[in-house]
Amino acid sequence: MALRRFLSGVKALLHKDQQNAEMDEELHGYLESAAADKVRAGLSEAGAMRAARAEMGSTESVKQKVRFSRWESAAESLWQDARYGVRQLLRSPGFSIVALVTLALGIGANTAIFTLVHAVMLKQLPIADPQHLYRIGKGEFYCCEWGGLQGSWGTFDYPFYKHIRNTNPFFDQIAAFSGSTPSFNIRRANTREIARSITGEYVSGNYFATLGLNPAVGRLIHPVDDTEAAPAIAVMGYQMWQRDYAQDPSIVGSTFLTNGLAVTIVGVAPPDFLGDRFTTYPPALWIPLSQQPRFEGLGAKSLLNSSGDAWLYVIGRLKPGAMPVQAQSQLSTDLQHWLRAQGRADDAEQKIANQHIELTTGGTGISPFRSDSKDGLYLLSAASLLVLLIACANLANLLLARSAAREHQTALRMSLGATRWRLIRAALTESVLLSLIGGAAGVLLAYAGTRAIVLIAFRGATYVPVNPAPSLPILGFALLLSIFTGIVFGAAPAWIGTHADPSNGLRGNSRSSTIRASRPQGVLVIVQATLSVVLLAVAGLVTQSLNNLERADLGFETQGRLVANLNFKAAGYRPEQLPALYEQVQDRLERIPGVRSASLSLNSPQNLCCLTVDISIGGRSESWIGDVDTAFNRVGPDYFETIGTPLLRGRTITRQDTQASQHVAVVDEAFAQRFFPGQTAIGQHIGLSLTGHGYDYEIVGVVKNTRYRSPAAVTHPMFFVPLTQITKYEPSGYQRLETGTLYAQSIQLHVAGAPESYEKPLRDVLAGINPDLSLDSVKSYSEQVSVHYNRERLIARLTGLFSLLSLVLASVGLYGVTAYNVTRRTAEIGIRMALGANRRDVVGMVLGGAFWQVGIGLCIGVPLALLSGHTLEDQLYAVSHFDPIVLGGTVVILCSCTLVAGLVPARRAASIEPMEALRIE
Amino acid sequence: MAEKSSDLVQGTLEMLILKTLALEAMHGYGVAIRIEQISSGVFRVNPGSLFPALSRLERTGRIKSEWRATENNRRAKYYLLTDSGRKALKDETREWGRQIAAIARILEA
């Protein structure tokens, strides 16, 4: 039925003339029949025709009624409005170009930010039915949450995962995957290939089935693969298969040496699947969980077999009809039972009762990046929205001025019978049309903008997880935003502009109604000033914070230093081989001409950070000591010299500190002050917080505090022990920590000249020692520090750009309104001058008007700016929300813009010749 | 116009047109006259309501139209009831009867 109505509507539109002729003929026939009847009843022919006509009314109005009863009339008048709109736009190209540029900037900024928000926050994983995938747990942790109670749990140990997988009644499938994505050195066996360093992920046997994925070739991991007795297999990522092996089908079934172990590749993951998280290092290899002990080499003490070490993320698909709330409370109960059954004597029952599991959405994957960037993205979205609002205010102003100019025409149209509704619709069609064209330009601008944003946001990354090309959701967003924008800036002018009195249309010029347009214009200027103040102040605060971050004293030198990451473990070394290897690496590196010193360490500042542990102090038993989170690092000889951290007292770690010698530690100032206030730290003994370990290490030196993480992050007291000294522990977690941290992950060079030029010699030296030793992210230390502030820099640059845009838009708006008012008041100014006002008075009057509006904007904007500064405070570093320089600067900038925008029309006003002005009247 | 005639109850015009056409195919004027005659002049249908109603009915497929020669050899557009129109007439008549009975009961109560 609806289809038939649609089709006959289309037919009617296509054969409009024929339809019209038929209707004419039909109506004419009606008239004749009616007249014939009346003749029969005794009227004269002429009289009958007249009477019949009178009864029917005008044929045109009957036709109109028939047309209105059909849907295509609405489409037709919309088409008329659109054509009228285009004609109006073409008639005033200056206005149209200004409006389109404004719109393209406003909509483009929002679309670019939305592209980012969509990629980071909203995009679903390319898996089957992502809406029904749940994550069991909340929050992101790196491997591993070490035995403790988590409160709201995010990662779990393997035994608990197996327990819920086997017992929970609410889920069809429950899968697990490792929280960390370890790097592997991989090369095809029996070839001359050089090993590649890639990221891998341990996954449960039902992982791919839970996600509902199909292999590109071969097969994916099945539950039968996930047993310790099963042959070693893995699934390769599509990108790697494509990039490194040109989609060679013989990869499937062939053997690869992965960290020295033979693993058979059984298949390739689907092309668009890059793992379950948003990261710049997507996994290229998936390995069954049960094979984890083989790679870790700790057997019974490996992560897989340990209880209490939470290293797995868990996801599941709810059964149809199961309620998430029910499943959630069942899981929490399970968890509490489990913890009690574990018999953790040291955990109070009341603490256990607080342990719970939340179900969160799983379809968008897991992303620490997302939680870290959330606040920044909200800020950017708000800033870009402000820009758009300011742009809307500008356009509304332009339209108001134009509708005032068109008032005569509007009144004429109304007196010719156009309804107000029809005129409003025409005006809105015009503004939406404008907005759609501007939006289309905005999408192009957003594409370019997003590419630039990605360059800033992912500087130094090998893989960028944001695609700047507009996808369907992005285009949909831009379309909706354009329509919405068109309505927002078009509504008030359409309403006010059609408020004309038809009789005015015939009477000619009238001045009273233009005053009606000038008040909303003033309000719009105030709104623009207010929003600009807020944006400027926020941009100032964020930029100030970035400057503080970049200038912060990090406690080490970045100039003339090179830093790189490497993985000795993946190259197949065993812990006992390491001390000799480290010595060899250091010697060879120091022999490179120009290298002043070289060192190795587990973590390095602004790069890899940090393990936190609890410690005990020999001879002291205060309970608070074990509650202080203390950062821990292992370093080689000459480490502090190489990165340029000043030694304050005692000595640093040297080549004489070996497993056989006295075990020693260097601590930082914060450590010395926290644990030994008013005493000498040197000579004291420390160890991990375990009974009997208080005398493990003797403190031999104190160094300056060094910022390992962002200066904005909380810092912990820190201690350093040699890479070569190892302590034996009973609990598996401690033992694993001890063995794992023996592998240096960072390498540093202090060089003469440009650090970048040492990348090649560094790579050569390592390849000469072992071709399996591959380097990762080799950077000069100043670049490494800069990369660390990518996000802050992006936010500062973008808010800066947005505030500049808003300032330009607001200034243009103010200029437009002031100029318009000067034109409108030409006669008035002429009279004033004729009555004795001098040119300075006129300039003062015009400027005063402009400053009055901006002043009100400042009065509203400054408190708002303070408020936004307050909500931003935890994103700022060493900047208070009340920053007099930023606020003062904001006021000065805005006032200068007002002066410039107001002075041009003010001078024009002053140049008015009184006599000429009066003649215009 | 139509001083003494009553306004049609909302929505009944289409039913009356269907009923009129159920007897034989007719042109627009014929429909108007027939309704006026049968209702003894109570209902007079003016062209401004008649033609939009015919157009609506044609769009919904309850009637169809064709050009035919009239009794005095002119060309006129005749409207014919379709099967779907016949069914709609039956449904609407039944519904109308129900409503009339209900209204009558209320007025007599």
Provide a quick synopsis of the model:
The complex is a heterodimer of chains A (921) and B (109). By secondary structure, chain A is of the alpha+beta class. Helices cover 52% and strands 13% of the residues of chain A.
Uncertain segments of chain A: 510-514
Radius of gyration computed on alpha carbons of chain A: 37 Å
Biggest interface reads: A-B, 26 and 24 residues
- Supply the number of helical segments of chain A: 29
The residue fraction in helices of chain B comes out at: 55-70%
Number of strands of chain B: 3
Subunit organisation of the chains = heterodimer
- For the largest beta sheet of chain B, what order do the strands appear in spatially? 1-3-2
The secondary-structure class of chain B comes to alpha+beta
- Tell me the overall shape of chain A: globular
Per DSSP E runs of 2 or more residues, the count of β-strands of chain A stands at 25
How does the helix and strand content of chain A classify structurally?
alpha+beta
**How much is the average pLDDT of chain A?**
87
Separate helix tally of chain B: 4
* Average pLDDT number of chain B: 84
The largest sheet of chain B, given as strand count, sense and whether it forms a barrel, is:
3 strands, antiparallel
Order of helices and strands of chain B: HEHHEEH
Estimated share of beta-strand residues of chain A = 5-15%
Number of domains of chain A: 4
Characteristics:
heterodimer; A: 921 residues; alpha+beta; 4 domains; 8-stranded mixed beta sheet; 6-stranded mixed β-barrel; 29 helices; 52% helix; 13% strand; B: 109 residues; Arc Repressor Mutant, subunit A; 3-stranded antiparallel beta sheet; 4 helices
